[in-house]
């Protein structure tokens, strides 16, 4: 689950249009303090796990500067949802704000798998324009701000183009890099940014947001708690699972709990459903949940302490599978399944066959058999 979503069918707003930010008061305080000192860094690296609100925080910072909210004595990052700047940022129509994402290939119309150099190079003329072409609210000199969402997805040429820009930072310019994998960025890029790491949310905060977005969960303690724990600190993940029905884990756990045995009838029924053209979201929910649970089992095995159960009986299953084969072999299984789902998306492979292959790999490991080598 990513920080952003442009799907209008989801029950929560995209980061640029989201007025709410929960659990990141320390990050807000750090940004406010930097601004108050008149030494606001020209580039910030906003890092942390997926789905915890990094992009929402970045747009919150951008709105506050563009609306001159920080220039008042009671400076705050909050900008009311009925403010003109809020509307323009939400509509991606503010002249002093640019957002860089992977986007789509103009020739094929398909989503790109990386941020390309031309997107980053376009920031040079953007920052080179007269600051304040669209003055900030309140009549102050205008800021020019760029949000690079998914900064780790820049290809090498794009990363070098950004590095060149940061070597001579623009006056009244601010670049906010949002990343869930900052280690993949060039060290020279990281060194030119003020790092700000956002922490995973706690379970009660996720439960509160689930209830706010899905009122029916207020009277379903068991399901709300399950979704919060599946979120694992990521409200975006928890909300996404709730939107897709939230039952993916129950289905998966019923299958996992029987390993190394496989109920092929159940697996084929699940595979047929996920292979339908209109079930792509459910397929991704199942794939991401399976990968997440494997990582959860591996961590529990590594530290020797099981986490709080998502559903009853989970601890016993984790302990049984952890003893089925060595830890390093489970890591290889996780890596193989991550690669399998990744290639399935890239090559548009049959979803049902991908699911069957993933569980065949799990069953093999649960029997204590070596994992087959991945094809080169």
Topology:
Layout: H1 25-36, E1 43-47, H2 54-66, H3 84-90, E2 97-100, H4 117-121, H5 123-128, E3 144-149, H6 156-167, E4 173-179, H7 187-191, E5 194-197, H8 203-213, H9 221-231, H10 235-243, H11 248-256, H12 264-274, H13 280-303, H14 314-322, H15 327-347, H16 351-366
Parallel strand pairs: 1-4, 1-5, 2-3, 3-4
Helix pairs in contact: 8-9, 8-10, 9-10, 12-16, 13-14, 13-15, 15-16
Supply the key terms.
alpha/beta, 376 residues, 5-stranded parallel β-sheet, Rossmann fold, 2 domains
Describe this structure in words.
It contains 16 helices and five strands. Mean pLDDT is 88; it is low at 1-9. It is an alpha/beta fold and 376 residues long. Strand 3, helix 6 (156-167) and strand 4 (173-179) form a beta-alpha-beta unit. It has two domains: 15-197, 3-Layer(aba) Sandwich (Rossmann fold), CATH 3.40.50; 247-366. It is globular and about 65 Å long. It has helices spanning 25-36, 54-66, 84-90, 117-121, 123-128, 156-167, 187-191, 203-213, 221-231, 235-243, 248-256, 264-274, 280-303, 314-322, 327-347, 351-366, and strands at residues 43-47, 97-100, 144-149, 173-179, 194-197. It has a five-stranded parallel beta sheet with strand order 2-3-4-1-5. Helix 8 (203-213) packs parallel to helix 10 (235-243) and helix 9 (221-231) packs across helix 10. The longest helix has 24 residues, at 280-303. The two termini are 28 Å apart.
């Amino acid at each position: 689950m990513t920080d952003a979503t442009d799907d209008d069918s989801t029950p929560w707003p995209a980061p640029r249009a989201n007025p709410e930010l929960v659990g990141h008061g320390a990050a807000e305080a750090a940004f406010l303090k930097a601004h108050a000192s008149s030494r606001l860094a020209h580039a910030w690296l906003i890092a942390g796990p997926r789905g915890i609100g990094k992009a929402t925080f970045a747009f919150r910072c951008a709105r506050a500067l563009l609306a001159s909210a920080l220039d008042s004595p009671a400076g705050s990052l909050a900008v009311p949802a009925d403010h003109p700047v809020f509307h323009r940022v939400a509509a991606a129509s503010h002249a002093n704000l640019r957002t860089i994402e992977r986007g789509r290939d103009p020739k094929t119309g398909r989503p790109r798998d990386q941020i390309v150099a031309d997107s980053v190079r376009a920031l040079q003329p953007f920052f080179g324009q007269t600051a304040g072409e669209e003055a900030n609210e309140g009549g102050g000199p205008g800021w020019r701000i760029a949000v690079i969402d998914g900064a780790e997805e820049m290809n090498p040429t794009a990363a070098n183009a950004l590095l060149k820009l940061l070597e001579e930072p623009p006056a009244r310019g601010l670049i906010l890099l949002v990343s869930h994998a900052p280690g993949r960025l060039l060290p020279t890029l990281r060194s030119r940014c003020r790092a700000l790491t956002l922490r995973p949310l706690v379970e009660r905060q996720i439960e509160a947001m689930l209830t706010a977005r899905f009122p029916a969960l207020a009277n379903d303690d068991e399901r709300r708690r399950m979704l919060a724990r599946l979120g694992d600190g990521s409200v975006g993940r928890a909300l996404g699972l709730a939107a897709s029905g939230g039952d993916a884990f129950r289905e998966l756990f019923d299958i996992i709990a029987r390993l190394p045995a496989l109920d092929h009838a159940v697996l084929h029924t699940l595979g047929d459903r996920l292979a339908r053209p209109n079930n792509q979201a459910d397929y991704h929910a199942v794939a991401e949940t399976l990968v997440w649970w494997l990582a959860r089992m591996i961590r529990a095995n590594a530290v020797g302490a099981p986490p709080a159960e998502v559903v009853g009986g989970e601890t016993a299953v984790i302990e049984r599978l952890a003893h089925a084969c060595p830890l390093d072999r489970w890591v290889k299984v996780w890596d193989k399944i991550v690669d399998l789902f990744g290639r399935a998306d890239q090559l548009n492979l049959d979803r049902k066959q991908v699911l069957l292959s993933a569980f065949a790999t799990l069953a093999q490991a649960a029997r204590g058999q070596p994992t087959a080598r991945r094809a080169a």
